[in-house]
């Protein structure tokens, strides 16, 4: 066999990737209430009346969620978690959307919505136990209004739409918030969910965190139009919001959820943000994106702009920031200690939660498993 010359292209080009090329999506009209420099601006369609106390609370959310994420990443690197999906850079999108939910609303996450879990009162250790592999998720979805994590890409949109149709038929004034990533918009499940949601005017809001990459596939290889514009094809509104602006995300999501509760049907929100870290701890982003791109997005950091505004406006004193950092340190200690001290589950627990009631087939499998394990003890 003749060796390939060194100049041979070994990576197949993407058909149609160059003609026509996607326009620069950053020029699209985007709702923004807080600039990267920390200046408040107005938007004609989305106003936000927020107190200094509420602003400080949002900043606290952002800082604590980021610290949780950093600690989880470190724990995975040290072998304490099987995997971790970082939200670094997406804190404002998640905290803003989570805080827009009413107590009676329900959120359907992917596997990265740790910030939303935080806003719904889910104990971080209940999320950590899932990634440590000791349970299937320790929180109560009904009590928290926050469904269990979904690993299958896009399927949570079907779950959310079906749940919203149930809420609609119950006559309840509730809304449902379905989270997805930009890559999930290419999944059939997501498009099917939006068709059903539009057809039945279901009270569901599709919240897409466009973090620019579907693992390693950039946005321009996924869509020829900005993602929020796809909503028009399904017959409901779409809006793009600065996903690094917690105030804009809060205002836009709150309005969309209220419209859903009032019977106006679904909305598609595209939170234009950036995944600062890896897709998961199994990923190496340096293989498919430039360091200069990351540096550019660091200038739009969601936490820095809130801190700048709080400091400049006099809404927070230096002691407040010190107190939040101290609280973050305490949270990190609790997460680390709680994670490493989690007891291993009994091996037979994997049979306990497959069905609401155990079936004869499952009982037989459990008995066979118990006998198999016991056979090793008998040989000793």
Can you walk through the features of this model?
The protein is an alpha/beta fold. The chain has two domains: 30-345, Rossmann fold (3-Layer(aba) Sandwich), CATH 3.40.50.970; 350-380. Helix content is 44%, strand content 8%. It is built from 13 helices and seven strands. It has helices spanning 52-77, 91-100, 114-119, 124-132, 141-144, 155-170, 188-199, 231-234, 246-261, 291-298, 302-313, 318-340, 360-379, and strands spanning 106-108, 176-181, 204-210, 213-214, 217-218, 238-242, 267-272. The strands form two sheets. It has a five-stranded parallel beta sheet with strand order 1-2-3-7-6, with helices on both faces. The chain has a two-stranded antiparallel ribbon with strand order 4-5. Helix 9 links the parallel strand 6 (238-242) and strand 7. It is globular, with a radius of gyration of 23 Å. 40% of the residues are buried. The model is unreliable at 1-23 (pLDDT under 50).
Query: Unreliable segments (pLDDT under 50, ≥5 consecutive)?
Result: 1-23
Q: Describe the biggest sheet?
A: 5 strands, parallel
Query: What CATH architecture of the largest domain would you give?
Result: 3-Layer(aba) Sandwich
Strand order of the largest sheet: 1-2-3-7-6
Spatial gap, N to C terminus: 55 Å
Anisotropy-based shape: globular
Count of alpha/pi helices:
13
The helix fraction, in percent, is 40-55%
Question: Which secondary-structure class do the elements indicate?
Answer: alpha/beta
The proportion of residues in beta strands is: 5-15%
CATH-defined fold name of the largest domain: Rossmann fold
- What is the number of domains? 2
- DSSP summary, beta strand count: 7
Instruction: Give the rounded overall mean pLDDT.
Output: 91
| CATH homologous superfamily assignment of the largest domain | Thiamin diphosphate (ThDP)-binding fold, Pyr/PP domains
